[in-house]
Design brief:
This protein is an alpha/beta fold. Helix content is about 50%, strand content about 15%. It has 10 helices and 9 strands.
């Protein structure tokens, strides 16, 4: 089976790369399983002091794997999405997302869960669940705390897309820069983080994420069940199949 997520550790940085071109880094059970394994490995590796999540493709993440959702269901997939966010939030190392290209639905949960997200201006975002008869249930755990109430209502209810600069203005990403400046901006963040002592970074991250982690633990299972139920509903199944059929034309 071809690996869909890669892990490389060098210079104190563990780089986790999403690389599933056949479905544009959709959050399949295989991809989320490998992502969880690499996050755990990086957490346990003393040579890794900072973690970067990035994409090998021109898209960061296309959201849920709709083909999987319409065949095997989302019982496992929805809980995996909660687990991925928790693994990022609870990780003892700072997690930085390097964001380029389209980010849709569940992929936005990864961006929001990261401690710091640096995005290119051309990156695009959309919480498209509402248009498929779904709700952004599991990722609401990390996305809503990043946004103002008004911004959450606008983005969750309309499903409209927005760009990198708007994502920074809304608080979804930490910083948005011109695409050609993205790697330089990422390097600057990593340089600063690597100046931190491991204990200092670990304990500071605990302080910052205490309430977020507690909320994930309190409501994660409930929201995963809600999400799985919505994915299995006749209305959502019909909408997802229609969407997949349009893509095939």
């Amino acid at each position: 089976m071809t690996e869909l997520v890669h892990l490389d550790v060098a210079g104190g940085v563990a780089t986790i790369t999403l690389d599933s071109p056949h479905n544009k880094n959709a959050l399949s059970q295989q991809l989320t399983g490998e992502l969880l394994a690499h996050l755990a490995a990086a957490d346990a590796d003393d040579d890794a002091r900072v973690i970067v999540i990035r994409s090998a493709l021109d898209v960061f993440c296309s959201g849920a794997d709709l083909s999987e959702a319409t065949t095997v269901g989302m019982g496992v997939g929805a809980q995996r999405m909660v687990d991925v966010q928790r693994a990022i939030v609870a990780n003892s190392k700072p997690v930085v997302a390097r964001v380029t290209g389209p980010v849709r639905a569940g992929g936005i949960g990864i961006v929001a869960a990261a401690d710091i997200s640096v995005a290119g201006h051309s990156s695009t975002y959309a919480l498209t669940e509402v248009r498929l008869g779904l709700a952004a249930a599991t990722i609401s755990l990390t996305v809503i705390p990043r946004l103002t109430d008004r911004a959450a209502s606008l983005t969750f209810l309309t499903g409209d897309g927005f760009g990198g600069e708007e994502a920074a203005r809304l608080g979804l990403v930490t910083q948005s820069v011109a695409d050609e400046e993205l790697d330089g901006a990422l390097d600057a963040v990593l340089k600063s983080l690597l100046k931190g002592a491991p204990q200092g970074l670990r304990e500071t991250k605990k302080l910052l994420n205490r309430e977020l982690l507690a909320d994930i633990d309190a409501r994660g299972t409930e929201l995963a069940e809600l999400s799985a139920g919505l994915f299995g509903s006749p209305a959502a199944q019909e909408a997802m199949l229609a969407f997949l059929n349009r893509k095939k034309r």
